[in-house]
Amino acid sequence: MVAVAILAAGRGTRMKSSLPKVIHSLGGRSLVERVLQSLTSISPLTRCLVIIGYQAEQVKLALSRRHEASDLPSLEFVEQTEQLGTGHAIQQLLPHLEGFTGDLLVLNGDVPLLRPGTLKQMLSIHQEHQNAATILTAQLPNPQGYGRVFCDGQNLIQQIVEDRDCTDAQKQNRRINAGIYCFRWLDLAAVLPLLQPNNDQQEYYLTDVVNQLEPVMAVDVEDYQEILGINDRQQLATASEILQKRVKSDWMAAGVTLIDPASITIDDTVQLQPDVIIEPQTHLRGNTVIRSGSHIGPGSLIENSQIGENVTVLYSVVRNSIVQTGTEVGPYAHLRGQAEVGTDCRVGNFVELKNTKLGAETKVVHLSYLGDATVGDRVNIGAGTITANYDGVNKHPTQIGDRTKTGANSTLVAPLTLGADVTIAAGSVVTENVADDCLVIARSRQVVKPGWRLKSTQEL
Ligand code: UD1
Ligand code: CA
């Protein structure tokens, strides 16, 4: 039986932020969510406890929103009202785990890059050796800030000393505590009440239990980048770089071309198909899916959007929208608010679509705004056509039938329905519904007065 506890009650003073540290975002997910993700390899996991304290409600909210989709057991929140150290945090579990006799995994909520396989391996070493505790360690080129782990020749831990409590000689030890532990719960529960705050910070350190337990084994992680702890913005940036490298090399291995990868960012929630090409300065975020043969960028942002096959997106922003097969977007288009563009359309050159649906082979190619509109197939929206969808209080819909053509600079005042095969003359302000097969001219007739000049110029 395995339970897990995640330490997420601390404020994270070194972040200098009004947000609790563990809900800071790394590649589109909070740090603590990423810690939860690393648990996917542990099964069966019977309990999942999250220790919260500083801005507990915020942390709860961040987790409850996202947690629905995962296979983990439901989260149990344990409140640590005063944050007196990592040992004090784990002491809060005592009433909750009464009667539990299995192993307890403890994960720091600020160690977000751990691979699921690493946890699994650590747990199996723990069980195989029947350790009282097994602790993930790493040899770091720069161990500054981490607790140092002192072992005997058999990797059995004698002591862990926090960086700030180390003597100069102890600081030379580059083997550090990753903040990832596996305990035989009954052994841990027996010694937790004995912790004393005898250190520079006067905190109860979880790491002090190693002095009371036997045997406690250190397991070195293969890739030390996995155990980077996030304490400040610099480490957050470093973690983001590591994550980006991982994500991009995985996509390249899966058949995606990245041109100038260093200038591209891809959240690990994004799905790409083989033969997608991503050009420089392009950013793919959230729940975005891009299908085969599509060519995105340079200079584009795609967020929470579905992009079909063989679509091109050039210097454009697409958010919360759908673009179907074969459509060309951009240069300089902005799709947002559930825009849905059909197959083989063209949308671009300073065009904004908001909550607007375009049928197949429709063109909105120059300087337009379409909001709350439903547009049919093979429609041609003329340069500068605008839907006047907002009367200052409410938004109103516009419907445009198949094959209709709007002239340059048409203003479509919503609510408005234009039938199929309608032609709107350039410069029209259309305020009334139009049936199929009509020509609409809604502008004042041109007046020409021959032989007329401004008075001032007549006198010259
Ligand atoms: C801790 C370890 C250190 C290790 C490092 C790895 C201790 C004493 N030290 O140090 O050996 O090298 O992690 O990253 O454990 N938290 C609470 N309640 C508290 C205090 C902290 O829930 O009262 C949570 C924090 O939210 C955080 C985690 O525990 O997620 C670690 O706390 P932090 O203060 O960052 O510990 P470190 O100084 O990094
Ligand atoms: Ca830390």
Structural summary, described in words:
This protein is an alpha/beta fold and 460 residues long. The protein is 16% helix and 29% strand. The mean pLDDT is 95. The protein has an eleven-stranded parallel beta sheet with strand order 12-15-18-21-24-27-30-33-36-39-41, with helices on one face. It folds into two domains: 2-232, Spore Coat Polysaccharide Biosynthesis Protein SpsA, Chain A, CATH 3.90.550; 234-440, UDP N-Acetylglucosamine Acyltransferase, domain 1, CATH 2.160.10.10. The protein is elongated, with a radius of gyration of 31 Å. The chain is built from eight helices and 41 strands. The structure holds uridine-diphosphate-N-acetylglucosamine and calcium ion.
Chain-wise SSE layout:
Blueprint: E1 2-8, E2 25-26, E3 29-30, H1 31-37, E4 45-52, H2 56-67, E5 75-79, H3 86-91, E6 103-108, H4 116-128, E7 133-139, E8 148-151, E9 157-161, H5 168-171, E10 175-184, H6 185-191, E11 216-220, H7 233-253, E12 257-258, E13 265-266, E14 271-272, E15 277-278, E16 283-285, E17 289-290, E18 295-296, E19 301-303, E20 306-307, E21 312-313, E22 317-319, E23 322-323, E24 328-329, E25 333-336, E26 340-341, E27 346-347, E28 351-354, E29 357-358, E30 363-364, E31 369-371, E32 373-375, E33 380-381, E34 386-388, E35 398-400, E36 405-406, E37 411-413, E38 416-418, E39 423-424, E40 429-430, E41 439-440, H8 455-458
Parallel strand pairs: 1-4, 1-6, 4-5, 7-11, 12-15, 13-16, 14-17, 15-18, 16-19, 17-20, 18-21, 19-22, 20-23, 21-24, 22-25, 23-26, 24-27, 25-28, 26-29, 27-30, 28-31, 29-32, 30-33, 32-35, 33-36, 34-37, 35-38, 36-39, 37-40, 39-41
Antiparallel strand pairs: 2-3, 6-10, 7-10, 8-9
The chain binds uridine-diphosphate-N-acetylglucosamine (UD1) and calcium ion (CA).
